[in-house]
Amino acid sequence: MIVNPKTKLLLDAFAGRPSSSIIVAGSSDTGVEQIINDLVEKLLDKPSRHDIVQVKPEDGKVIVIEQVRDFKKSLTSLVKSKSDIARVAIVWSADTTTKEGQNALLKLIEEPAKQTLLILQVSDRKLLLPTILSRCQTIPVLPITKAQAVEYAKSLGLTEETAQKALLFSSGESKLFSEYLENNSESSGGSILEAKQFISEPVFSRVQKSKQYEKSEQIHNLLNDIEKLSTGGLHNSIHGKHLRWVGILKEVKSCRLLLNKNVSPKLIFIRLCISI
After folding, report:
1. Would you list the domain boundaries of the chain?
2. May I ask the CATH class of domain 5-140?
3. What's the pTM value of the predicted model, to 2 decimals?
4. I need a labelling partner for 261 at 20 to 30 A (CA). Which of 32, 52, 171, 228 fits?
């Protein structure tokens, strides 16, 4: 797991002097789950490693007040350990919690359970109540550096050019970067750049490439590359700029359905050129 040096410094400092609550800001593509799991392993001694309470959004959507209440009840039991931190309570995707649920979390932050560390994982910290933000230290999962990217690529026997392509595609998000390198060859890296160019150029220029996409397999590969690129863009877009990526992903899904229905690749390609 590649971790930005500044993020690692903050994590190590927290592990040395932990408080009762913390916000770790990073999406799934940053590898935030592994980062939090590694932090928990550092903070809990071996007998307490099973003492972890977790809550996450229902149906992958939001965390509701009832979940938070049950979560808080599970922290009322005493823990059998002399350690300052003997239990860890994790709220995954805490930024999806309803306002009522966040107010309940705020009370837990203000009156923490004994010997318990509360970790709030968020993709967008701006969606948390200001009162929660002001009472918790935030550790951002920052993008990996170019030097880290090149070193990791070379450890896999890949070139600096490939590392730079992967860094561009992933926007420096560690997990996405690693998966790209491990699942894509030198040649497929170029296809991602082609997809990036396809998205950015005008419709007329796209249509001129129609001969490159006359077969179903070619369209399928193009859709896959655009989907990867758009997923990375969606996770890294600044507030208010994500709608374009959402629209592209919806169009990719529609084109894929048409492809599965044996619609002419040429027609699908023309639709893709116009719609995104």
Report:
1. 5-140, 146-275
2. alpha beta
3. 0.69
4. 228
